[in-house]
Amino acid sequence: MTTIAKKNNGRSSKKNQRSAKDTSAPRVLKSVEGREGSMSSFARKLILEGKTNEEVFAALVKKFKVTKNHRGYPSWYRRQLVIAKLIKADFAEKHA
User: How far is C-alpha 1 from the chain's CA centre?
Assistant: First the structure.
């Protein structure tokens, strides 16, 4: 019986490992502000202004030239804001 060698001997690279203090809780968005000019910070600002997912996606297409394969980005960013308690779930549902 032959065995197949595991890549990196079964260990992940250091850049993919989280520190021990981070493993107990998922990463949570701490503020709306991200890197200046990033797609995520732009989308979050539009969501906070009350734009719908379709409006946010249209703005992302125009500014960042994203494709239809990324249509779920506004929902993803909206959910991050709800989890971080920066917006309420009812606000998210109303404007989705």
Answer: 44
Number of structural domains in the chain: 1
Q: Is residue 11 part of a domain?
A: no
- Whether residue 38 contacts residue 44, with contact meaning beta carbons closer than 8 Å, is answered with no
Say if CB 56 and CB 23 are below 8 A apart: no
> For residue 90, what are the domain limits?
36-96
Considering just the CA atoms, what is the radius of gyration of the chain in Å?
18
- Report yes or no on 6 lying in a domain: no
Q: Which residues contact 50 (CB under 8 A, 6 or more apart)?
A: 95
Instruction: Classify the C-alpha dihedral 27-29-30-33 as positive or negative.
Output: positive
Q: Is the pTM of this model over 0.85?
A: no
pLDDT in tens, 14-49: 555 555 554 544 555 655 556 678 899 999 999 999
Is 77 among the domain residues? Answer: yes
Domain membership of residue 56 (yes or no) is yes
